[in-house]
Specification:
CATH superfamily of the largest domain: EAL domain
Organism: Deinococcus hohokamensis
Protein name: Bifunctional diguanylate cyclase/phosphodiesterase
Largest sheet: 8 strands, mixed, barrel
Number of domains: 3
Strand order of the largest sheet: 14-15-17-18-19-20-21-22
Shape: elongated
Pfam families: EAL, GAF, GGDEF
Number of strands: 23
Number of helices: 22
Oligomer: single chain
Structural class: alpha/beta
């Protein structure tokens, strides 16, 4: 018995199965071809046969009632191995075909089969004819079979293209109106449904509710457990929200950890508040995911038609504004929209426009805060902090514009400018007699994830002339731990340049100590939340001591942030903290003022 090459047979079967015509009734489209061949060649039996791994399927036939046969016993099993037409003039004189059902039951004596060859050269079946007497098929007849076999393949290809096009069209339409991660409606579908709900509400005089729901602390899950767990968690959250709503309500996801809920046909405004409470209660129940038990709270903002807006976008803006008011109230709250919130949202939009212009015009400045060796009081470094000064001289706090810069992507050009300016200033001060002065610069998530970040750092060092050993890049725990593999490679690359990486705000996230051990960290910055309780008691001091011990184990210098009193300074010194930073040691000030306060003593 002939045994096909396993790899070739696997590829052949893959080509066959992609047409999706096995285990289906005979194809009506092919009946015309079989009838035509029977008439033209004067044969009693014509079949279009697709040959699978062990069985062969007749997708059209005339002259026989057989629809499925064993591959090993039929002439077509041999024909699919041929490049051209396979002919057997007398089947009774060929013993290996004696078990062909058409020979045994239909009295066939001769055979001619043209392989069905796919465009990429695989024979998936045969267009075959049987006659009841010995017969030599002429070259013209064989050529005719080959031409019609090509038409069969053309028909299969057309069917496949149609199926693929229909599937792609359906998928494209679904993707255009649904969130790729959760399968929930997206912004486009929600706005469309909102428009329909508002038309109905206008006719019936009923209110419509719009809720914007944001998860409190979702970033912690992403940072501590990874984005894959975070994505799975968002899917479960979406499903739980759906279960807590009426069939006529819509829950949509716009991206991130923000969900929007449309509530049509409300009886009164209080109904929306009750729905918000129900959603908060639903999410407050523990989540079991991949063997983990997770807890979550949410903040909800509510807007109502017609009081807060007559169009979908206006209601969405109002609900979003109310949601931020809920977060400001302490999270795990819900708030209805108010006029004051509208002004706050408009101020934010105005600030975003100003920020874009400020980056383009270079309206920012760098302030510097000293870092002091606690044992000697000696200035050993400084942190560069970006500030945005308005025309009237007031400074916009970083908390007001840094998140906006992150959202818009402006943090990348802004961060590049700060890094270059800080390096150049450090070189100038070193040239003035402070050769050991190092500079720390904060790096955002967006900067860190840029493929060109490391070459950029290298180029700035080259352009400014700053030694890599005098540059410290401060990264938050979330940047380092959200993608441990990438973080390790990035930290290794920077260390190979001679640049130190500092873990900023240490203690505020959920560090995986085993991951920290594998990272090339040159500095740990102890968050101010550890410093503020000092001198405190044994518990507070033990927490600081544990961070100092960890820094020593990682061969990373510890810098305590937020030192505001002499008592805090003395306790940190007593505990063995090497370096401190905070208002008690010096506030962030422009370069010229920094020189007066710290370099000209």
């Amino acid at each position: 018995m002939w045994t096909p090459d396993p790899l070739e047979e696997q590829e052949r079967l893959e080509r066959l199965h992609r047409y999706l015509v096995l285990d289906t009734p005979p194809e009506v489209e092919f009946d015309r071809i079989t009838r035509f061949v029977k008439h033209l060649l004067g044969v009693p039996v014509v079949i279009i046969n697709l040959v699978a791994a062990r069985r062969a399927w007749l997708k059209s036939s005339v002259g026989t009632n057989i629809h499925e046969v064993d591959r090993a016993s039929i002439c077509c099993g041999e024909a699919i191995k041929q490049d051209g037409v396979f002919v057997v003039e007398d089947l009774l004189a060929t013993p290996r075909f004696q078990n062909d059902p058409l020979v045994k039951f239909e009295g066939a004596r001769s055979y001619a089969g043209a392989p069905l060859k796919t465009p990429d050269g695989f024979n998936i079946g045969v267009l075959a004819v049987y006659d009841r007497h010995p017969r030599a098929f002429t070259p013209l007849e064989q050529s005719f079979l080959q031409d019609l076999a090509a038409i069969v393949i053309d028909e299969l290809e057309l069917r496949l293209m149609t199926l693929q096009w229909t599937k792609a069209k359906d998928q494209s339409e679904f993707q255009a109106r649904h969130d790729a991660l959760t399968g929930l409606p997206n912004r486009l579908m929600l706005l469309d449904r909102t428009g329909q709900a508002l038309l109905q509400a206008e006719r019936h005089g009923t209110p419509v509710g719009m809720l914007v729901l944001d998860l409190d602390g979702f970033k912690t899950i992403n940072d501590s457990l990874g984005h894959s767990v975070g994505d799975e968690f968002l899917k479960v959250v979406g499903a739980r929200l759906r279960e807590a709503l009426r069939p006529q309500d819509t829950v949509a996801r716009f991206g991130g950890d923000e969900f929007v809920i449309l509530l049509p046909e409300l009886h009164d405004a209080l109904d929306a508040g009750r729905v918000a409470e129900r959603l908060q209660e639903a999410l407050a129940q523990p989540f079991e995911l991949n063997g983990l038990v997770l807890e979550m709270r949410c903040s909800v903002g509510i807007s109502l038609y017609p009081n807060d807006g007559h169009e979908a976008e206006a209601l969405l803006l109002a609900a979003d504004t109310a949601m931020y008011q809920a977060k400001a109230a302490g999270k795990h709250q819900y708030r209805f929209y108010a006029e004051a919130m509208t002004r706050a949202a408009q101020d934010k939009l105005h600030l975003r426009g100003q920020l874009s212009q400020a980056v383009a015009k270079g309206e920012f400045e760098v302030h510097y805060q000293p870092q002091v060796e606690l044992t000697t009081g000696r200035l050993i470094g400084l942190e560069a902090l970006v500030r945005w000064r308005q025309a009237d001289g007031r400074l916009i706090p970083p908390g007001a514009f840094i998140p906006l810069a992150e959202e818009t992507g402006l943090i990348i050009p802004l961060g590049t400018w700060v890094l270059r300016e800080a390096c150049a200033q450090a070189v100038r001060w070193q040239a003035e007699g402070y050769p050991e002065l190092g500079v720390s610069v904060n790096v955002s998530v967006r900067q860190w994830e840029e493929p060109a970040f490391m070459p950029l750092v290298q180029q700035i060092l080259l352009d400014t002339g700053l030694s890599p050993s005098h540059l410290i890049l401060e990264i938050t725990e979330s940047v380092l731990l959200s993608d441990p593999q990438d973080a390790r490679m990035q930290a290794e690359g920077l260390a190979s340049l001679g640049v130190r990486v500092a873990l900023d705000d240490y203690g505020t996230g959920y560090s995986n100590l085993s991951q920290l051990q594998s990272l090339r960290i040159g500095q740990l910055k102890l968050d101010r939340s550890f410093v503020q309780p000092l001198p405190g008691g044994p518990r507070e001091q033990a927490l600081v001591q544990s961070a100092l011990t960890l820094g020593q184990a990682l061969d990373a210098r510890v810098v305590a942030e937020g030192i505001e009193t002499e008592e805090q300074l003395l306790m940190l010194h007593a505990l063995g903290c090497p370096v401190g930073q905070g208002y008690f040691l010096g506030r962030p000030v422009p370069a010229a003022e920094f020189e007066v306060q710290h370099l000209q003593r």
